[in-house]
């Protein structure tokens, strides 16, 4: 039996191409082993037997869209060899016309995203408060998850400072449920009518269309400094949460408050949380700047590579549960205000299921780009509340999908099809792919035997919660509890460690330093003074401005929620990437053993060599994954030194990794690289050992804390 080789991600295809152009026709290649397509179902949700590739291209020969085989696709039909081109060339017109229409309107927000298939398994813990079938014990439900940035276009970079979308489509037995949230639990605004304002302010300036995918400009800070209900979200965005290390290490939140309803019709208010098994971790600012130039696809590549390598990302779904009281308050916090959180210390997050992402999409456009989420896609057991942001989202998402995807039948696109029966009596419209029998798409009818019939609560019908509506006067306004714009920002800032607070101050200083208008800087400093005078003074000093005093003196220290800090705990190292610097002078047997041990530990070893191909030959040959030219420190979580080649790029690698507080280790052969980079072997987070097992044990222990923050003290 052959020994299992470490699975290194990045295999480009499911077959091995020849160097020369092939001369024998063959069927299109199947998907790679890490890829999955949308379930094979009809437009109305009926399962279809067949291969997963049934929707893919077929046949050995190139054809027109109507199936006619073609003998030439490199030359247009001309009047003589020099033209002109003839209008009758139907293949030219079909090919060019389709190309001209390949792109659909990108999302106004969340345009840049990445996605994956997976499965959700319920724990059964939610059954006392929700009758949703997919939350039952050990019930497994297919899911499709899309992560995204908010402000940038599809062509922007991944590692920008921005809020991230975390949208999950559950294909449940009772219909599709979409949980559409963010990686930040509070939002900029309290009422959805202001959503166009915050997005217009955050998007590039309309005169120059710059800056792309950034909030470091005047219009954004003009809005949030005038509109102080945005303060808490802005502070979260200026923290390390604004630049996640990976989608796999990113928390998710439903943001709005929802309802859960049990079998007895009892209602409970809930907030949804996604807790990553690997912990919540971030990039440091310099890493993000390097990444956006070196590899703008960093996050989508990381997600796809982890799945391909078998390091399947996992999140636990949890809920904070609150009594559904008439005032919808909890411990003085208005549960309908989306700019507020309830600290986990006051209402613990209760795990109700686990999600594992197990497959990459087969086709980015068909799946990641065309997937359509909507918070109104609900199932029995889950309902909405009167949160004014959520109420507007219920309209906006549906309207957006109709515009982007060419009409009301976007639910028939394969990635959006429910995994249960659909009989909606909706007919026709653009891109209708269902062929519906019957003559009576209306109710009541007798011509179709009265079908389809209405369901009752006893047959899993979705029934809205009968919420009492108190008599009131129509008005445009908000309750008094919405007027508190600063206590939650103080709570968040006070809960951070010293290193995290330093990063917040640096972020504000950078962002405001990119603004041109002096008044905007001064106004934002007034906002910071209401959060923390120390933060305000530090940012003011960086801007060369005086620090204003707060308008209200806060004698009592703010509440602290340790759950809001990303620093201080230990986490699994699954999927962590270790770069191993080696050359022909290295002990290749030790390198090969390290590669094997790292892979067996659920991590990803990438050998960095002076050239591509292999180091050594024969049985001792070690495949090279990165060269000194193609690597950069930011793609590795840790560095292992098996040699000290005289190459200035390696000094940059080691010095950056040290500066970014990453674990660095090596055998004695790599010591000269540490010396050349001016790093002491006794510095925090440095492991040098003769013996491979002890070396890797020390490295693994360091990586469990994500970074060696002691270096910043």
TrEMBL record:
Active site: 110, 182
Residue numbers spanned by region Disordered: 1-61
Biased composition (Basic and acidic residues): 23-35
Cofactor: heme
Position(s), cross-link 3'-histidyl-3-tyrosine (His-Tyr): 374-397
UniProt function note: Decomposes hydrogen peroxide into water and oxygen; serves to protect cells from the toxic effects of hydrogen peroxide.
Protein name from the UniProt record: Catalase
Organism: Rhodococcus oxybenzonivorans
Phylogenetic classification of the source organism: Bacteria, Bacillati, Actinomycetota, Actinomycetes, Mycobacteriales
